Amino acid sequence: MMHTVGTPTQVQSTLTSLEVQPRKRWLPLLGAAVVVFIVVAGLWDVATNERFRWPVVFEYLFNPQILSGVGLTLTLTVVSMTFGILLGIVLAIMRLAKNPTISMAAGAYIWFFRGTPLLVQLIFWYNIAALYPVIALGLPFGGPSVAIGEANVLITPLTAALLGLALNEAAYMAEIIRSGIQAVDEGQRDAGRAIGMTDAKLMWRVVLPQAMRIVIPPTGNQVISMLKGTSLVSVLAISDLLYSAQIIYALNYQTIPLLLVACAWYLLLTSILTAVQGRLEVRYGRGFQPRPQRRFRRSARAAVRTGEQEDRR
């Protein structure tokens, strides 16, 4: 049994004859008004509460010691993320290797560093001299070795912080990069092998660039998490942002205002990183993200033009 739709003119007249029910907008407006009222009331209470001591907050917001802590926090974030990403790429490739020994070794690394708290790892690296007083390179099982130096001298608090942050981050980045590599279509690899690419060149020139659009969003989240996670190094007496604030309020007893100063800087830095992440997602997502609104408008315009041409005929 066949159904005839009719000419475009008949379809248009049928659509215009339908009764359109207006959407009830009072409920969303009421909900929005309640949310705005609660937010404004909360902000007003915070702004007028003298116990927050906002003058003290603005006094120490650009304190040289605070700014030095901000610089060290950014340094820890950039260096740790750089080494974490590089090591994560190596671990992800090892995890996907066909050799079971290499794959299991990478899996054991990821299992250990993801399964133990970051704070415990930082304290462990800080006290590594208790296990290895002298750091040396040599053959195992009692073979000859060459001493590099004493652990207390080589593993400073800053070195321990970088080791703990970078090695821990590598375990998470390995899983993120592995998921991105596995998301690339197998046909891309076959096409690369067909033109004579080696596995290393295929990975660097074909697979990794296509995996970027999947890797970037969680990597951006990891960068933001790393920025906030650097506050844990305060237990190692490193003058990052939080430790700098702690030193100041230990002297003047302005605990809440100095914590608000630290929160303000963390919020500013994470907001900048969020904006950068959004730009990178747009750049590497070109050609993959559909734009349904534009496509709908183009389809609608094309349908209208087709109907007008049919009516003229």
UniProtKB/TrEMBL annotation:
Protein keywords: Amino-acid transport, Cell membrane, Membrane, Transmembrane, Transmembrane helix, Transport
Membrane topology classification: Multi-pass membrane protein
Region span, Disordered: 293-313
Keyword Thylakoid among UniProt keywords: no
Domain ABC transmembrane type-1: 70-277
Keyword flag Transport: yes
Domain of life: Bacteria
Subcellular location(s) of the protein: Cell membrane
One Pfam short name: BPD_transp_1
Entry's transmembrane regions: 26-46, 66-94, 106-126, 146-168, 232-250, 256-276
UniProt similarity note: Belongs to the binding-protein-dependent transport system permease family.
NCBIfam families: HEQRo_perm_3TM
Name of this chain's protein: Amino acid ABC transporter permease
UniProt source species: Leucobacter manosquensis
